[in-house]
């Protein structure tokens, strides 16, 4: 019974060891899956609308729905990073604010790629023209086009699901884009949005109606933030790989060593028994009368 228990423990040790070795291999596959850690998302405006007007104080809200394609194999979660500023005209007169959010008011989620297809999600950009805009807009003409320059600020949280069961937050990526579009209040219309890392390198937006829903943003993410996430990814997965592999090999080594030990013991016992079986009980005739016969 003790032997059966011993063999059962050895079988468990081998099974656990094999599982840990498989886990180590899967962790390396996960590391390859998330290398590079971040692939650029690309966004395009898909809908423009006047989302609300307040008279006291005067605030005109223009809502823009933006569709973003996510090539990463994990969902990206975004949230506003402060409130951006809004300027109009070539002389950049500050007249309001800009802010992103979820269309339904909850969390912004861009589903990850799956089955070879990129994921996508939609977020809302709200541009608010406040009463400071009255004078320059009246001077320009209420029905005339004007250039709206605004900041697009967001934090993107990188939280991949390791092995599909463990969510690990690796880094926050900062989106700090400078954007522009042509707009008109009466009737309310906007042109396509264009973005860049700075207003100095941003071209003048096309007039309203010139293009329809063109691609406008492949966000510039600071390299140090991506490197920070990659270092955390390597730390978690490499440590998990090393620990799983070491304990897995130890688990496999115990039953293997026991089997070698038993085999050697079996050979030794067989070697001791075999000469005894081969000995004759009759004395050697040449030694008859030898006083040391019994020795």
Short précis:
By secondary structure, the chain is of the alpha+beta class. It is 32% helix and 33% strand.
Give a verbal description of the structure:
- The chain has 295 residues and is α+β, with helices and mostly antiparallel strands.
- The protein has 2 domains: 1-38 and 223-276; 39-220.
- The chain is built from 3 helices and 14 strands.
- The protein has helices spanning 2-33, 134-140, 223-278, and strands at 42-54, 59-70, 76-80, 84-88, 93-102, 108-110, 119-130, 146-158, 161-162, 166-167, 171-184, 189-190, 194-196, 217-218.
- Strands 1, 2, 3, 4, 5, 6, 7, 8, 11, 12, 13 and 14 form a 12-stranded antiparallel sheet that branches. Strands 9-10 form a two-stranded antiparallel sheet.
- A hairpin with a 4-residue loop joins β4 and β5.
């Amino acid at each position: 019974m003790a032997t059966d228990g011993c063999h059962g423990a050895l079988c468990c040790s081998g099974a656990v060891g094999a599982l840990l070795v498989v886990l180590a291999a899967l962790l390396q596959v996960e590391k390859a899956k998330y290398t590079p850690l971040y692939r650029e998302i690309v966004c395009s405006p898909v809908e423009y609308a006047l989302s609300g007007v307040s008279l006291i104080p005067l605030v005109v809200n223009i809502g823009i729905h933006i569709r973003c394609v996510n090539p990463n194999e994990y969902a990206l979660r975004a949230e506003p990073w402060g409130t951006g500023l809004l300027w109009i005209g070539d002389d950049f007169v500050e007249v309001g604010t800009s802010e992103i959010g979820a269309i339904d008011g909850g969390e912004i989620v861009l589903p990850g790629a799956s089955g070879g297809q990129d994921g996508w999600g939609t977020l809302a950009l709200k541009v608010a023209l406040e009463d400071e805009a009255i004078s320059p807009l009246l001077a320009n003409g209420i029905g005339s086009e004007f250039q709206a320059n605004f900041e697009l600020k967001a934090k993107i949280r990188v939280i991949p699901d390791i092995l599909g069961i463990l969510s690990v937050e690796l880094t926050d990526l900062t989106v700090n884009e400078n954007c522009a579009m042509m707009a008109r209040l009466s009737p309310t219309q906007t042109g396509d949005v264009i973005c860049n890392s700075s207003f100095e390198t941003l071209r003048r937006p096309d007039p309203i109606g010139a293009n329809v829903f063109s691609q406008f943003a492949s966000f510039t993410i600071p390299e140090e933030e991506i490197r920070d996430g990659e270092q955390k990814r390597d730390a978690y997965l490499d440590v998990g790989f090393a620990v799983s592999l070491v304990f897995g090999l130890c688990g496999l080594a115990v039953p293997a060593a026991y089997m070698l030990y038993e085999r050697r013991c079996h050979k030794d016992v067989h070697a001791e028994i075999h000469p005894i079986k081969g000995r004759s009980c009759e004395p050697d005739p040449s030694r008859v009368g030898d006083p040391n016969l019994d020795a």
